[in-house]
Every structure is written in C-alpha cells, then in structure tokens.
C-alpha cells in the first residue's frame, strides 16, 4: 500500500498495527555524505510521542553507537546506545553466548574493533593506523621473507572476524586464510555487501554513486580457505535472534521494519515476521523487488511524507476530544 493514497481510516489502522519500529539508517534517515534527510527525524519523534519504541538497525559498524546517538538526538529524537544495533554488537553478543575467550583476528573498522575490546575480547592487530600499515606493506614488498613470517598461521588465533574495513590489505587476508585452514578456528562476518551505494547532490542533481564493499574481499577469503562464515548482518538468522533476545519482542507481527534496500532490509523483515515499510530515498526503487520476500507491505517515497498524515490524525483526535468536552 502506498501510504500517500491511504484514507484516514487506513492510516490509523497502519499506525495502530505496530508497537516497535526497527529502522535502517543510510538511505532512510540520512545520506552518508550529505546529512539528515529533511523531516525524517520529525516523524520518528512523533511516532515516539505515540508510544512507539525505536531501534536503529544498520550493517554499518564504522560509526560507534555513541556517534549514532549524538547525530540523532541533536535533531529531536531520544535514543540511547542500546537502541543502536550493528554488526559489531551482534557478533560480540554471540561471542559472549558461546563463551569465546581466545584471540580473534579482526579485519574491521576501529569502531567495530572497539566494541569487542570494550566487551573484554582479545583482538589483533591491536591497533590499525594507515600510516603504519603502509610502512609494513612497503617492508613486505622489499623483503618477501619478512612478509611470509607476518602471514604464517598463528595457533593462538581461534577466530577470524571480518567486516567492512578501510585498511583491508593483502597481509590481513593472507593471514586470515592461513588461520581458517584449521578447523578449530571460528569464522564470522558482518557487512558483506558487494556494493555500497548512496545518493548525493552534484550540481543541483541527485546522483547515485557506488563503490566496492567488503563482499568481494570476503569472497576471496571464502574461496581460498574453503570456509563459509557465520553471518551477522541483515538479512541473517543471527541478527534476528539478537533482536528477539534483546529488544523484548513479544509479537513479531507488532513490529515494523523501515528500509531502503530490497535484498537486505525487506528480506530481513520477512525473515523475522515483521511488517515491511519501504522508503524511496535510498539506492533501490519500489520496482526493484524481485522475490516475494522483498515486496513491502507499505511504501512511501520519503519517510518525511508521513508527517502530514500523522498531523491529520492528531488534529482529528483533538477535534473529537474538544467536541466531547463541550458536550
């Protein structure tokens, strides 16, 4: 249903059909390089005032939960770090569940790695600095024997964890492949998108830009190691279990997932049994739905367009209350 064509009764029924909102961020609330999409946070604020619980669910762990909160709360929405759900937090939750206490090789952003470190896990490399990495690569290029010593299997490593990383280099890939040849090494991955897409304004026109994600690099590790990772990003079973375990979801049908991508957001909502709201402000369009699980229950070109519908219902309720008071 296109909510812009909904009657007042249909809009009321839509708003009454869910108690918990789970929303993607990039392409729904903001664009990575141009900031907040106008009006979106106003809608979330109004929905919170109606008693709806809000969680932000993202495959992007390059930004800390605290930074997400700061970005959102400065625009009028109340949200706490525990309401931010990303791949780093889900993997850390899983490691706690299986009581993992050994050393993990982590190829991910510094924000992702910090989540694991804060939760008490031992990770290598201990620190990622681009300048140091470039120096190390230079040394390796000049001395192949030194390079081999850096990528030899380390028996202390008992898990390989891969997510998007700006410093995803040959040495880390080679070491992870060598470690994964041991069957006692666990293998986990977060974001594995083939492409990362976003819209931005250029010369007064909105353009869609794409660049390679972590997916092709993870595919190389999979192929060369002969291993397949446990997945923790949308649309994975492990993320579903995390949400059901930590978000006090009593009835999945009373949850709505808001997203802009068919193969991640809409498929994940279908996996969980959530209602699906697709917004047209991201990389995909409503016509990109190919599988039955990708077809949304509701559609709106921009989340901001829900504001006048909510305002209309609020005004109608005020008028009814005034009439009852006068009678």
TrEMBL record:
Which annotated residues bind Mg(2+)?
24, 26, 260
The terms under GO molecular function for this entry are: metal ion binding; phosphatase activity
Q: Which Gene3D superfamilies match?
A: HAD superfamily/HAD-like
Residues annotated as the enzyme's active site: 24, 26
**Cofactor annotation remark:** Divalent metal ions. Mg(2+) is the most effective.
State the UniProt keywords alphabetically.
Magnesium, Metal-binding
Fetch the SUPFAM superfamilies from UniProt. Answer: HAD-like
Q: Which cofactor does it need?
A: Mg(2+)
Binding-site positions, substrate: 234
Task: State if Iron is listed as a keyword.
Answer: no
Annotated GO CC locations:
cytoplasm
Q: What top-level branch of life does the organism fall under?
A: Eukaryota
Please give the name of this protein: Phosphoglycolate phosphatase
Q: What is the scientific name of the source organism?
A: Frieseomelitta varia
């Amino acid at each position: 249903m296109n909510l812009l064509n909904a009657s007042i009764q249909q809009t009321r029924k839509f708003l009454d059909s869910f108690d918990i909102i789970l929303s993607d961020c990039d392409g729904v609330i903001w664009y990575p390089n141009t900031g907040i999409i106008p009006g979106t946070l106003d809608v979330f604020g109004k929905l919170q005032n109606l008693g709806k619980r809000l969680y932000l669910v993202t495959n992007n762990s390059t930004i800390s939960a605290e930074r997400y909160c700061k970005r959102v709360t400065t625009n009028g929405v109340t949200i706490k770090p525990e309401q931010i759900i990303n791949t780093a937090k889900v993997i850390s939750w899983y490691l706690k569940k299986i009581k993992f206490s050994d050393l993990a090789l982590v190829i991910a952003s510094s924000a992702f790695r910090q989540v694991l470190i804060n939760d008490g896990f031992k990770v290598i490399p201990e620190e990622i600095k681009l300048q140091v990495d470039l120096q190390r690569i230079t040394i390796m290029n000049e001395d192949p024997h030194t390079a081999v010593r850096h990528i030899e299997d380390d028996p202390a490593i008992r898990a390989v964890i891969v997510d998007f990383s700006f410093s995803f280099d040959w040495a880390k890939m080679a070491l992870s492949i060598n470690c994964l040849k041991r069957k006692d090494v666990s293998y986990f991955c977060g974001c594995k998108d083939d492409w990362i897409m976003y819209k931005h304004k250029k010369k007064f026109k909105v353009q869609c830009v794409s660049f390679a994600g972590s997916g092709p690099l993870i595919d190389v590790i999979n192929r060369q190691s002969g291993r397949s990772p446990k997945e923790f990003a949308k649309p994975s079973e492990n993320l579903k279990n995390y949400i059901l375990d930590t978000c006090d979801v009593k009835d999945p049908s009373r949850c709505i997932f808001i997203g802009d991508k068919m193969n991640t957001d809409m498929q994940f909502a279908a996996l969980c049994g959530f209602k699906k709201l697709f917004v047209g402000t991201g990389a995909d369009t409503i016509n990109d739905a190919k599988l039955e699980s990708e077809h949304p229950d509701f559609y709106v070109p921009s989340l901001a367009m829900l504001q006048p519908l909510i305002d209309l219902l609020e005004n109608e309720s005020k008028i009814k209350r005034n009439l009852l008071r006068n009678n």
